[in-house]
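Schema walkthrough. Field components (list of strings):
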Amino acid sequence: MKKETQHKREGFSSSIGVIAAVLGSAVGLGNIWKFPYVTGANGGAAFILVYLICVALVGLPVMLSEHLIGRHTKANAVGAFKALQPRRPWFLVGGAGVLSAFLIMAFYTSVAGWVYAYIFKAAGGALLTAKPEDTTLVFNKLVSGVGEPLFWQVFVLLVTGSIIMAGVTKGIERVTKLLMPLLFLLLVIIDIRSLTLSGAGAGLSFLFKPDFSKITVSVILAALGLAFFKLSVGMGTMITYGSYVDKNENLPKMAIKVALADTLVSLMAGIAVFPAVFAFGFTPDQGPKLLFVIIPAVFNSMPFGRVFMVLFFVLTAIAATGAMLSLLEVPIAFLTEQYQWTRRKATLLTILGIGLLGSTATLSNSIFATVTVFGKTFFDFYDFATSNVLLPLGGIFIALFVGWQWGYVKVKQELSNQGQLANDGLARVYLFLVKYIVPIAIAVVLFTGLK
Ligand code: TRP
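Field assembly_structure (string):
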């Protein structure tokens, strides 16, 4: 522990700043892009129900665990485990997290690139059509290109890299604090429009009337994977962010607030998308293009649609960027603290690595369209391997670590801010979850779902 904590660490400067940053990590393309399309592909309401259970019983405890580990050790994902268990291989959990950050960023920057590109397409009028068939053409043309999507991916990496280089409090906190409320407001506006389209009711039933026959093991695995991806847990992001959090912060309260707010944003994105999907005569299982073909059509059926559409993609780009900052922060904190690299060197080499790996994801619809790994394109493989395998695996080990290795008394101390918070009951529930429910539930779902 000594070595990692020697140099001065920055931290988030206020309580509201902490929530904003943690929420800024959680809210991103996961809510706006992934939640609707995965819900659409997995049958709607029943999937959402399973998802909510995964968030409450698995995602939330893992998030809290990461915050506890991070705040206690004040170290990066690898250093934190080394500090607590210097002679055991737990640090490999953090190491796997650093790897996951690269794999997630590989496809995340690709999708973020589409979003950035859509800001300009929306502004330039290329998306001024209420017909989903036409918006599909625009989307297909973008993603099956080579130079254009690569350009945007590089652009995304440069933007995110520059913010990261500016440092933790200055960069991350400032950007995210301002913009979450604005995104929320805009979602309210789109929801209203989507709900008032004629034929919107079918979309609402799709979202809220569960058909339990739709639940299969692979649906459950998808819900579990989405919960991890959504809450940014299972790979040390929340350890890293937790390490910037003040000793007096009420961590359980914060985790609950973040999970609730994040889920609300996802549901609102669902309400923006699905009524429109049905109103425009589309099917919900469009896959990753769902958001990009439906949302422009919604905007074009409202007054000032073009202005709102630009605003929507700007805010989505910002939300995606806040999430990417937290993903990047994992390898950067690791490299600067474990290897004493400068922040600048760590950032530049990390985004270079992500750019190289990420180009294979971006070109999955063109040059590499026929190249597959385990039957999936690079893009789909990075996505599946992280959300549905690596993050849940990380979750098992993080839960086992807190539940069985760290020590009951120490965990309770950190959880209660050294006894200042009276949360004994909560501690008992939490420890029961991380000892038994979380590892067993994940193991069962992973084992059966992957077969
Ligand atoms: N939660 C973010 C989203 O929904 C993505 C993300 C950020 C993430 N950091 C993460 C996912 C760490 C997994 C792990 O867009």
